[in-house]
Specification:
The complex is a heterotrimer. Helix content of chain A is 56%, strand content 0%. The chains are: A mainly alpha, B mainly alpha, C mainly alpha.
């Protein structure tokens, strides 16, 4: 069954790559999620697939039964799942803040908005108004203290 | 000894919790910790004085021959007593000085962490252990200098200190590794046992230079001295503790510790004496430009540090003796002087010695302390400082150039002492920005005790010598260094030189006003020498970074990513193709219909995510992919993974929903087709195919079972666990897991900080407004700070 | 969400779920479970409560700030590593304390302490992210 799973990994990873290369940051985050799913499956399948025998030592025994599943990739993937969750949430929060500050999540518009947060032809989202005032902490140098720091 | 060090760290961990409950008595209560440590170290005095040595060690990284080894001899004990004893005074003092400060819990955490790390430095008998504690002192110093992080001067000073001591520490680590590699052990005591092997080795000179770099940066030797005056941005308790009595002496300590092994060669002598002399001269000259009491004291600390390095460089019984006497005398007078400077600042509202007058009338206790410590600092009898200076002069008699520099610097010391302990206090009329009062008990008890010790040991220096300093000097010498100390040596060359010094000092003091104005007018605006070089280096770094960012990274994220990913995919594909690692010999496909259906479901859902134009469709298809993967884990004997994946998917849906609720529903519409002409599709297809092909190549060779077989066999017998995956996570590879949960904590903190900014903006924070007055003058601000602090 | 059914079931379930999360944590060394899984179940339980009753109530139920959970969890994990030093072993070596207490075998160990640390960090991280998003 390894070969079909390897093919699935290819589709997941390719779809993820395609989304990561999009202009829309939300799609980028979705792409990251797909990619990490693909990579986890890739690790899993590289350690070979086993049906029905989990990597546990049964009561009364000192080693798992012959042919038990490979525990090493499982340990790697378990933390990888939780970590990618944490980092995905972080990416989502970054995206949310980007939208609130700059009113867009399109990467090609970001540099323009960074220079001028409120171009005349685009009306900013309501939520970005109260915190667009420059921070009192700003030390000059960059046009936007929060993003520049 | 491990316990002594750990006690400090435990105190650091508990400090933030206990600070609020202890209220205004916090300084007194916390002082019990360093006081207990002082008492504990003091009980070992008789044993050490009799020539004994204590040692203990704990296995750390046996594979690399690294142990957490500790050793208490005369030198370590001298330092340990200074660290814990002055620490006691500082902890009490800080309780009064920073009363009501909102960051007090953080302050005590850092102070105790520093104390523990510093004890670790002086007790370590293993170079790697020493290095770890050494870096910890740099880090805690960084946070303490930047304590008032709302001030730019604090942040800059903190960064400068960290960059300079940190790069020195890196060089030092290189030196340590060279030494350890050559000798075959990192144990300091074993290394020093055979000095001939060290000095004759080809790595001697590079190792010496690298280690000296570490010591010189830490002890602020020329040309790395620039960071120390800027570190005066720290609150006064920190300045008196870290930046005069203890941390800056870590470099001196290291040189003294390694002197029996590395010392005694011409390279050692010239390196240390020349750098030390330059430091003494530079500090003496620059001190004349200062008016700020703390900066004046900082330059006088530099003079002392330079002198100590010279004395270690000279070596021999005389050098070792002079060094330990000078160091203890310095610690006993400098810490009280700093605290008095803090009292002036705290009570009178300024540290500019020309702005203040007549404080002695309202602050008699502080003045008395200042005078006692000042007389010692100026090297006048009957203080320990006098004894120390006499001994130092005697030692340097054969090296006239170094002696001349020290005499000049000692004369400047007289000026500094006059400016700090006489000028602000003398006079009938009180002149100060605030109406001054005497400082509270907590702010003068510690300095009184220290200054009293200075006069007590001045009268009976031999008590100190036989009890502590002879063993300490013996440790520096690597042999027995018996000597005798007395206040009065009769009329000899050193005494005549002392009289000359004081005479020059008095002349300089009288001429100070015009001289100071002249020097400031000529040199005040110039950022010359090492300070300018440091600034230039930082500016250059930023310029290079800006340039390379402009060249290598375009503004357009999409193009940027396309370049990186496209290159990576092409590289991997090209390598695989050229090296011919793709001989496929695939295992037979055998699976149930159910298994195939789930894989097909994942594929369909992934493609649906790619083409999704609404939020709902995207979330749903992502969810299907996630649960599909969980089902794959279920089918192929990975119950832990399946459960984790199910749970994460559930939480992910909640988070994505929370985020998307705050974004407009039209966000996904339309933009997918715009990039059809881009390289995204071919790169994605190539990348997906590449990963599949690589996986198939992996599957074509038999799996190496060595590591899984070890885990299978060891899990229950060695780690008492039947769930092998869990055993790997919490036992065999626990260090990895520790790293991973740290990453999680950082991600959560990062997300929190990003989201918090809005809340922070709604209520403007008073403490973040621009600093008032000049950059240094609001040290010890006792007004409560509003709007900052606990954020959750 | 203002749903009576959700609220009622949540109130019934929350205790069971939290208990279950601790159960998963404790049995993790021998059976499926462990700090990561237990922590995720615990976090999901409190997230459910937050959805039903609002995050202020979930906050009150928790009594401890999520960031304190993260800090305590990390400290416990580090402590579990350092304890080995007192037995003269390299850092993170597992130490075991196994006793028969009546009919039960009590197994305490530094890996278990480490896993408790992981458990607390995971709960703290998930909740801190959720709460700050909710609050936003």
């Amino acid at each position: 069954m390894e070969v079909p799973v390897a093919l699935t990994v290819g589709v997941l990873f390719g779809s993820g790559l395609y989304l990561v290369l999009q202009r829309n940051l939300l799609r980028l985050v979705f792409g990251l999620i797909l990619m990490s799913g693909g990579v986890n499956l890739a690790l899993f399948v590289a350690g070979r697939l086993t049906r029905g025998i989990s990597p546990f030592v049964p009561e009364g025994a000192y080693a798992p039964p012959m042919g038990a599943a490979n525990p090493l990739p499982q340990a790697l993937i378990l933390t990888a799942i939780v970590i990618s969750f944490g980092l995905t949430v972080f990416a989502l929060v970054l995206l949310l803040r980007t939208y609130e500050r700059l009113g867009t999540v399109e990467t090609n518009e970001l540099p323009i908005r960074l220079r001028d947060p409120h171009p005349a032809d685009v009306s900013p989202p309501a939520s970005s108004v109260p915190h667009a005032t420059p921070s009192t902490e700003s030390s000059g140098g960059t046009s936007d203290p929060e993003v520049g720091s | 000894m491990l316990t002594a060090v750990l006690l400090g760290f435990v105190a650091a961990a508990l400090a933030p919790i206990l600070t609020p409950t202890l209220g205004s008595s916090v300084g007194w209560a916390f002082a019990l910790v360093p006081a207990a440590l002082t008492a504990w170290f003091a009980t070992h005095l008789p044993e050490i004085a009799a020539g004994g040595v204590l040692s203990s060690s704990v296995t750390w990284v046996p594979q690399l021959g690294i142990e957490a080894a500790f050793r208490l001899d005369g030198l370590s004990l001298t330092f340990a007593l200074m660290i814990s004893g002055i620490g006691t005074a500082v902890v009490i003092y800080a309780g009064g000085y920073l009363r009501g400060d909102r960051q007090l819990p953080r302050f005590y955490l850092l102070l105790f962490a520093f104390m523990a790390a510093m004890l670790g430095v002086v007790l370590s008998d293993d170079l790697i252990t020493l290095f770890v504690f050494w870096e910890l002192t740099s880090l805690t110093s960084y946070f303490l200098i930047g304590y008032k992080h709302e001030l730019r001067s604090s942040r800059d000073g903190a960064l400068q200190g960290l960059l300079i001591t940190g790069s020195g520490g890196l060089a030092m680590l290189g030196g340590f590794l060279l030494l350890g590699n050559e000798v075959g052990t990192f144990r300091i005591s074993e290394m020093l046992a055979d000095p001939a092997a060290l000095t004759a080795s080809p790595i001697y000179l590079p190792a010496l230079i690298l280690i000296a770099l570490g010591a010189f940066t830490k002890s602020a030797q020329f040309p790395f001295h620039v960071w120390l005056p800027n570190a005066m941005a720290a609150p006064t308790p920190v300045s008196s503790y870290l930046h005069s009595a203890t941390m800056v002496k870590a470099g001196v300590y290291l040189l003294a510790r390694l002197a029996p092994g590395l010392g005694g060669t011409p390279a050692w002598f010239w390196l240390l004496t020349v750098v030390g002399t330059l430091t003494v001269l530079a500090a003496a000259g620059l001190a004349l430009l200062q008016r700020d009491a703390k900066r004046l004291l900082a330059y006088s600390t530099l003079i002392a540090l330079g002198a100590l390095v010279v004395l270690i460089g000279v070596g021999g019984t005389y050098g070792a003796k002079a060094m330990v006497v000078f160091m203890v005398a310095h610690a006993l007078y400098k810490a009280p002087l700093f605290m008095v400077a803090g009292n002036i600042d705290h009570e009178a509202g300024s540290r500019d010695v020309t702005e203040l007058k007549g404080l002695g009338r309202v602050m008699p206790v502080s003045w008395t302390i200042a005078l006692l410590a000042g007389v010692s600092a100026a090297g006048l009898p009957p203080m320990l400082g006098f004894v120390a200076k006499e001994v130092a002069y005697e030692t340097l008699l054969p090296h006239v150039w170094a002696l001349a520099a020290l005499i000049a610097a000692s004369a400047v010391m007289v000026v500094i002492v006059f400016l700090v302990v006489w000028r602000p206090f003398a006079g009938r009329e009180v002149t100060a920005p605030k109406s001054p009062h005497e400082a509270p008990l907590s702010m003068w008890l510690g300095p009184v005790v220290l200054a009293a010790l200075g006069i007590g040991f001045g009268f009976a220096p031999d008590v100190l010598a036989q009890g502590l300093l002879v063993p300490a000097a013996s440790a520096i010498l690597g042999a027995d260094a018996s000597f005798y100390l007395a206040l009065w040596h009769g009329v000899n060359t050193a005494l005549i030189l002392s009289i000359a010094t004081v005479t020059i000092g008095v002349v300089l003091t009288i001429a100070w006003g015009p001289l100071h104005r002249f020097l400031v007018a000529r040199l005040g605006g110039v950022r010359f020498g090492p300070a300018g070089a440091y600034q230039g280096f930082l500016d250059g770094l930023v310029r290079v970074a800006t340039w390379q960012t402009r060249v290598l990274q375009s503004d357009d994220l999409q193009r940027h990513l396309t370049t990186i990913i496209g290159f990576a995919v092409a590289l991997a594909a090209g390598t695989a193709f050229v090296r011919g690692g793709l001989a496929l010999d695939l295992p037979a496909v055998s699976g149930t219909l159910y298994e195939f259906l789930i894989l097909i479901l994942i594929v369909v859902a992934a493609l649906a995510t790619v083409t999704a134009h609404t939020r709902l469709r995207a979330i749903t298809s992502l969810g299907v992919v996630g649960f599909g993967i969980a089902l794959v884990f279920t089918m192929f004997s990975a119950p832990d993974l399946a459960v984790t994946q199910f749970l994460v998917e559930t939480l992910m849906v909640i988070v994505v929903a929370l985020v998307l609720m705050r974004l407009p529903s039209t966000l996904l519409r339309g933009s997918a087709d715009r990039s059809v002409r881009s390289a995204a599709a071919p790169i994605a297809v190539l990348g997906g195919v590449l990963l599949t092909v690589l996986l198939l190549a992996v599957l074509s060779v038999p799996l190496d079972q060595t590591i899984p077989a070890f885990y299978d066999a060891a899990s229950y017998p060695e780690a008492n666990g039947r769930n092998i995956v869990n055993v790997i996570l919490v036992d065999f590879r626990a260090l990895d897991t520790l790293g991973e949960i740290t990453v999680l904590a950082v991600a959560a903190t990062g997300a929190f900080a990003l989201l918090r900014r809005i809340g922070a903006r709604k209520e403007p924070e008073v403490a973040y407004t621009a600093p008032r007055g000049s950059e240094d003058d609001d040290d010890g601000n006792d007004e409560p700070r509003e709007g900052k602090g606990s954020e959750a | 969400m203002n749903s009576l059914i959700l609220r009622t079931t949540t109130r019934l379930l929350i205790g069971v779920l939290l208990l279950f999360s601790v159960f998963l944590l404790l049995r993790g060394h021998d059976l499926p479970g462990g700090g990561f899984i237990g922590g995720l179940v615990g976090a999901a339980a409190i997230a459910l409560y937050a959805i039903a009753y609002g995050y202020e109530h979930a906050f009150a139920l928790l009594r401890i700030r999520p960031r304190a959970l993260i800090g305590v969890g990390l400290s416990l994990a580090v402590l579990a590593g350092i304890l080995a030093a007192f037995a003269g072993e390299p850092m993170l070596t597992g130490l075991w304390w196994i006793r028969e207490v009546g009919p039960w075998t009590v197994k305490l160990s530094t890996p278990l302490l480490f896993d408790v640390g992981v458990y607390l960090v995971v709960i703290g991280v998930v909740l801190r992210m959720l709460f700050s998003l909710e609050e936003h």
